[in-house]
Amino acid sequence: MAAALGACFLVLLILVALRWHPLVTVDGGISRTTHRWAVRDHELTHVFRVLTDWVWDPTTMRLVCAAAAVWLVWRRAAWWTALWLGITCAVAALVQQFVKAVVGRPRPVWPNPVDSAHYAAFPSGHALTATVVCGLLLWLLHRHGPRPALWRTAVAAALVSVVGVGVTRVWLGVHWPSDVLGGWLAGAALVAAAVTVHEWPRDGRERPSRGR
């Protein structure tokens, strides 16, 4: 799965770098439409700014991951898993910045912007970070056999976060839709690769506890 997701991300990266006309056309059409909505609907735009700047900001997501790592060490003595969690988040941040620097895609420019952002556009760091953090935490929760109600709540919260952050970035006019798609694909590929690393070989590592 990591290879398949990585291949999809690579194809998208190439299309973005080559400025493939159909992709540019779709990106532009969606972005112009959502920007018109954002300019008209001040209240919803304000809510989206709060969500993207505070709730789903990459720093907030990493702090959630750090809290999970502390909990793993404190309650489970799971040093390897906590270290693995931190390293994966750090690698995701490095990959994001490296690809941004290599591709150098400009962000959308509007005569009446409703928000601003720094660095290059592709891939969306918000979308990538939310996908990595939510994906890793969901996998860890699943390993420990959560109750059905808790699992359904966690899956719903993760889906809302990952999809929601992508919507806010396009709505606020700071990313093209393909930037968000690239963040999702890269994040999912990193999660799949990280899970493979964690499960390879398992001798001497902590085992998940079931039925708690």
Largest sheet: none
User: Helix- and strand-based class?
Assistant: mainly alpha
Strand runs, count: 0
Q: Can you give the mean pLDDT?
A: 93
Model regions low in confidence, pLDDT < 50 over at least 5 residues: none
Strand content: under 5%
Tally the helices: 8
Silhouette: globular
Helix content: over 70%
Termini separation comes to 29 Å
Transmembrane segments: 54-74, 81-99, 119-141, 153-174, 180-200
Domain Phosphatidic acid phosphatase type 2/haloperoxidase: 82-195
Protein name: Phosphatidic acid phosphatase type 2/haloperoxidase domain-containing protein
Organism: Streptomyces corchorusii (Streptomyces chibaensis)
Describe the protein's architecture and organization.
This protein has 212 residues and is mainly α. It has one domain. It contains 8 helices and no strands. It has helices spanning 2-17, 21-40, 42-55, 58-76, 79-103, 125-143, 148-171, 177-198. Helix 5 (79-103) packs antiparallel against helix 8, helix 6 runs antiparallel to helix 7 and helix 7 (148-171) packs antiparallel against helix 8 (177-198). The longest helix is centred in the middle third of the chain and has 25 residues, at 79-103. The protein is globular and about 55 Å long. It starts with a helix and ends in a 14-residue tail after the last helix. The mean pLDDT is 93.
